[in-house]
Structures are given as structure tokens and as C-alpha cells.
Design brief:
Pfam families: Bac_globin. With about 140 residues, this protein is an all-alpha fold. Helices cover about 60% and strands about 0% of the residues. It has one domain (about 10-140): Globin-like (Orthogonal Bundle). It contains 7 helices and no strands. The longest helix is centred in the last third of the chain and has 18 residues, at about 100-120. It is globular.
Length: about 140
């Protein structure tokens, strides 16, 4: 596992100086076993759920799903402490999603949680990942 963390510029600005959030991120990174196979499997399940979910599938219509999968695998590997991330910020990556709402983000988090559980991850593991994903809500929604 590299020394890369979500501290600093990868965290949304409102969390960068929040010791509680930084501690939560460190906890997730130290307790989650991260490997490419697991992350790729979760991402495949996640996008298979999303493209069938009427609440959010409009955001995936006409999208290069292979590229999207690769980008999310890379980002999750970073979040879980597996490698450095040098892609766009979450705000920049989702800037084009002008119509995304809290209800959409809730559905995405629900689908991400379901994907981790379907892959075989524990409930507590999944909850810790979702807690970190929750910190990105405002950046993804564009607030």
C-alpha cells in the first residue's frame, strides 16, 4: 500500500482541515484490504446496477462505460489506499452533471453499498467506504 491518502487536496475543501474526517479516512485506509481484483469486481457490479436503475441510469446513457470503469477503479484504489490518484477532482469530473440531486446521490451511494455487499464485503467494511463517499457529495452535486 502506498503512502497516498485522501488528506490534502483530494478531500473536498470543507473536509481538508477536519481532523474527524481525516481520522475516518485513515481508519478506512488502514482497515480495508485493497486489491485490483476486488475493486474491479465491485466497480463492475456497481455500474451494472446503475445502468439498470431508473433513478440514475440517465447519467450513464451514451457514456464510454469502459473509460468510466477504469477511472472509478483508479479512484477507489486511491481512496482505499492502494495507489496515487492524479485524475480530475470530483467536482471537475462531475461538473457536466447539472441535474444531479441529493436523491440521485443517495441512489448512487445505495448502489455502491449494494455492489460492495454483493461482492462479499462485510457490512462494516461497506459502511466505512460509504462514509468516505458521503464526504464527496457536495463536490459531485456541485455545491
Amino acid at each position: 500500500m502506498s503512502g497516498s491518502t485522501l488528506q490534502g487536496s483530494s478531500l473536498p475543501p470543507m473536509y481538508r482541515n477536519n481532523p474527524e474526517i481525516q481520522q475516518q479516512v485513515r481508519q478506512v485506509q488502514s482497515t480495508l484490504a485493497c486489491n485490483q481484483e476486488m475493486v474491479s469486481g465491485v466497480v463492475d457490479i456497481f455500474y451494472n446496477i446503475n445502468v439498470r436503475d431508473e433513478r440514475v441510469n440517465l447519467f450513464f446513457s451514451g457514456v464510454d462505460m469502459g473509460r468510466l470503469r477504469r477511472m472509478l477503479v483508479k479512484y477507489l484504489m486511491h481512496v482505499l489506499g492502494g495507489e496515487e490518484y492524479n485524475g480530475k477532482s470530483m467536482r471537475a469530473a462531475h461538473r457536466h452533471l447539472l441535474d444531479i440531486t441529493d436523491a440521485h446521490y443517495d441512489a448512487i451511494l445505495e448502489n455502491l453499498s449494494r455492489a460492495f455487499l454483493l461482492y462479499g464485503c462485510s457490512q462494516s467494511y461497506t459502511e466505512r467506504v460509504i462514509a468516505v463517499a458521503e464526504t464527496l457529495r457536495d463536490d459531485v452535486i456541485g455545491r
